[in-house]
Design a protein that fits this description.
Largest sheet: 9 strands, mixed
Bound molecules: 4'-deoxy-4'-aminopyridoxal-5'-phosphate
Number of helices: 8
Order of helices and strands: EEHEEHHEEHEHEEEEHEHEEEH
Structural class: alpha+beta
Oligomer: single chain
Number of strands: 15
Strand content: 25-35%
Length: about 280
């Protein structure tokens, strides 16, 4: 069953509440994580928790628990939920304050850990691939709100997602403020060309996905060259394969982007083999 840790207690989801004065709600002032559990095991827990702490540090938010205790709470939550396959949403907000935005008024950060079921793309989507359009909403400028901070400010990504919905597409590609290819609405992006992988570099201003890092490791172990570089839409349109990565989506290919069919339209060879290796890894790790 779903279970939620909030204000130091584990509660059923119906009883898990936060104050309307929480600055996570009032200002999107906080950070979060999305983590997968496969067969009772949390995938790359430390990497997620370290990213959470880095996100918090970057926004001058001190998480009131150590990394090890935070990891312990996640393990406890999975045990308590009894869910073998689950999705964990971890949230740390600035906490309860007044109606002004001064973070110093918020004395105690709110720590929330939701252990719930996961809604995935249906299996046939992985065979068919996604229809994708480029959104006109760019990712935030990397020195405004760094996309490396997994913050509670998701409106740019939501606006991009809405563009995709209005266009009847499954997913969108977001460009950065300079017009380079950045990421999906909640995923990272890879392009395959002549057997080599290309993906936007972290410093260009993207979220450093845990799935992205895992795919890079798997590719390098299989002697597939990986280039972290800048990409234009031209590179995407003319790629042999394009796929997205994320904790929820795992690896899923784009069938078409802005009306251009990618490769032969199906899951390309590299995407298919990386996806299979990834799926084996998450169940063995
Ligand atoms: N980019 C964005 C904007 C995301 O929200 C996510 C999902 N957390 C990702 C990329 C993929 O990251 P991960 O592989 O760690 O889930």
């Amino acid at each position: 069953m779903s279970i939620v840790y909030v204000d130091g207690k584990w509660l059923p989801k119906e009883q898990a509440m936060v104050s309307v004065f929480d600055h996570g709600l009032l200002y999107g002032d906080g950070v979060f994580e999305g983590i997968r559990v496969y067969e009772g095991k949390i995938f790359r827990l430390r990497a997620h928790i370290e990213r959470l702490f880095d996100s918090a540090k970057a926004i001058w938010l001190t998480i009131p628990i150590s990394i090890d205790d935070m990891m312990g709470l996640h393990l406890e939550g999975v045990k308590r939920s009894g869910l073998p396959d689950a999705y964990i949403r971890t949230i740390v907000t600035r906490g309860v304050g007044d109606l002004g935005l001064d973070p110093r008024k918020c004395k105690d950060p709110t720590v929330i850990i939701i252990v719930d079921r996961i809604a995935l793309w249906p299996e046939e989507r992985y065979a068919q691939g996604l229809s994708v359009v480029t959104a006109s909403t760019p990712t935030p400028h990397r020195e405004s709100l760094s996309p490396r901070v997994k913050s509670l400010n998701y409106l740019p990504h939501i606006l991009a997602k809405i563009e995709g919905i209005v266009a009847n597409a499954d997913e969108v590609i977001m460009l950065d403020a300079a017009g380079f290819v950045a990421e999906g609405s909640g995923t990272n992006l890879f392009v395959v060309r002549r057997g080599e992988l290309y993906t936007p570099a972290v410093h260009s201003g993207i979220l450093r996905g845990v799935t992205r890092d895992t795919v890079i490791e798997l590719a390098l172990a299989a002697k597939i060259p990986v280039h972290e570089t800048t990409l234009n839409r031209f590179d995407v349109y003319t790629a042999d394969e394009v796929f997205f990565t994320g904790s929820g989506a795992e690896l899923i290919h784009a069938r078409s982007v802005d009306g251009r069919v990618i490769g032969a339209g199906g899951a390309g060879k590299l995407t298919a083999s990386l996806r299979e290796t990834f799926r084996k890894l998450v169940r063995s790790a």
